[in-house]
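Feature request, filed as a ticket because there's no other form

It would be nice if the structure record came with a short human-readable summary line next to the tokens. Right now we just get the raw output. Example of a typical job, pasted below so the devs can see what we mean:
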Amino acid sequence: MPPNLTGYYRFVSQENMDNYLRALDINVVLRKLVCLLKPDKEIIHMGDHMVIRTITSLRDYVMDFDLGVQFEEDLGPVDGRKCQTTVSWEGDQLVCEQLGEKRNRGWRHWLEGDQLHLRMTAEDEVCVQVFQKVK
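Raw output as currently delivered:
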């Protein structure tokens, strides 16, 4: 049975965000701004339904979805694109596949103790973020 990810997580660290954003064709000014942000995550996990909020001082981003069901994700706030997105479990990892203009786009979340890890990919770039559970 997959873990329940419900909780509030504070930003701890990130690696390679600038190159990840460059792979998404984000302009240099916005890349620099995003690299300064320290987002929090709030996850509500209710059976096969999940809500993941990424919370920043600039803008919040909300994903509200059913596991295993493809939906159109509007990534306008991120890079102006739309993707066909499916989120499902692979063992203890929550895996998101975002089909669209960019190859190999998606992410995976997993827990290690009370830390939430996020690995985001686009093209050949990988960004890793770590968050500490607080609630």
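Something like this underneath would help us a lot:
Strands lie at 7-15, 40-46, 49-55, 61-66, 71-75, 81-90, 93-99, 106-112, 115-122, 125-133.
The chain has a mean pLDDT of 94.
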